[in-house]
Design the sequence.
């Protein structure tokens, strides 16, 4: 009898492959529960945390999404964000039709949401833009209208945490950024979370109270690879972005994005994001 020793550690690529396959099984389980069949291409979210696909069943066509989380994080505002957002009747978004939650051997908690299937498609497959999406002017008008309506919507939900914002901005800039103006925000408004050519806004996990202008600032940061679009965002939302509150929101949004830039995500954004923050007169260095 021989002892070959411990198995070699699994590569990150193999671990991701296995987790993706496991998420597909979770999607199939949710589809059976809702009596629907997956009919289109499966898409994964950040770090494979979510999986979604178009589905069809006796009641019609829908979108089915499954999110996976460690049990200790499977609660609170983020966990119920999409269903909580059903109250936002002035914002174009998908209504949630049904919800299913289950536990996987105490390891992960799964949440499936059956949602309306929206027309069109995400403006970008990634959070940032790589080219001009050629959106009609009506799309920009509808986006400005939606964000203005959202801004004044009352809520007790927390989108951008005060303590986390203080700690993160102190780490990034050497001193904490003080936020004096708070509004209701989407909290993660990038180009993979908006549909075109007819506007719809996706992924409402993080919506709640946040710095006024946070959504506009986030969209601007993720536009910087395409200067013409960045300029259009700046012009369209100049009333917010050029205000003192908007400049603070930009610092807060950039500090959040910095963690991903430091990790090597969005490498082509590093230089323009650094330049934009430098315009505000604060230090901003990407660590690689």
Sequence:
């Amino acid at each position: 009898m021989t002892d070959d020793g411990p198995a070699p550690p699994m590569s990150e690529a193999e671990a991701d492959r296995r987790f993706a396959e496991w998420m597909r099984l979770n999607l199939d389980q949710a589809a059976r529960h809702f009596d629907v069949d997956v009919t289109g291409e499966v898409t994964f979210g950040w770090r494979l945390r979510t999986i979604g696909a178009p589905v069809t069943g006796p009641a019609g066509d829908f979108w089915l999404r499954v999110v996976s989380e460690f049990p200790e994080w499977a609660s609170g505002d983020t966990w119920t964000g999409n269903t909580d957002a059903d109250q936002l009747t002035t914002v174009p978004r998908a209504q949630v039709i049904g919800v299913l939650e289950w536990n996987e051997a105490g390891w992960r908690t799964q949440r499936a949401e059956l949602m309306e299937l929206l027309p069109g498609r995400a403006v970008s497959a990634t959070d940032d833009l790589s080219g001009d999406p050629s959106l009609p002017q009506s799309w920009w008008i509808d986006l400005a209208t939606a964000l203005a309506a959202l801004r004044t919507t009352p809520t007790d939900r927390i989108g951008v945490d005060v303590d986390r914002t203080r700690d993160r901005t102190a780490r990034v800039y050497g001193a904490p950024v003080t936020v004096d103006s708070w509004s209701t925000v989407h909290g993660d408004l990038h180009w993979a979370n908006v549909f075109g050519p007819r506007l719809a806004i996706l992924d409402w996990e993080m919506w709640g109270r946040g710095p006024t202008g946070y959504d506009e600032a986030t969209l601007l940061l993720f536009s910087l690879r395409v200067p013409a679009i960045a300029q259009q965002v700046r012009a369209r939302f100049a009333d917010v972005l050029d205000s003192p509150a908007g400049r603070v929101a930009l610092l807060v949004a950039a500090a959040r994005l910095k963690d991903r830039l430091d990790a090597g995500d969005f490498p082509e954004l590093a230089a323009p994001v650094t330049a934009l923050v430098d315009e505000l007169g604060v230090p901003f260095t990407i660590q690689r």
User: Anything to note?
Assistant: Residues 159 and 208 are 4 Å apart (CA to CA). The longest helix spans residues 12-34.
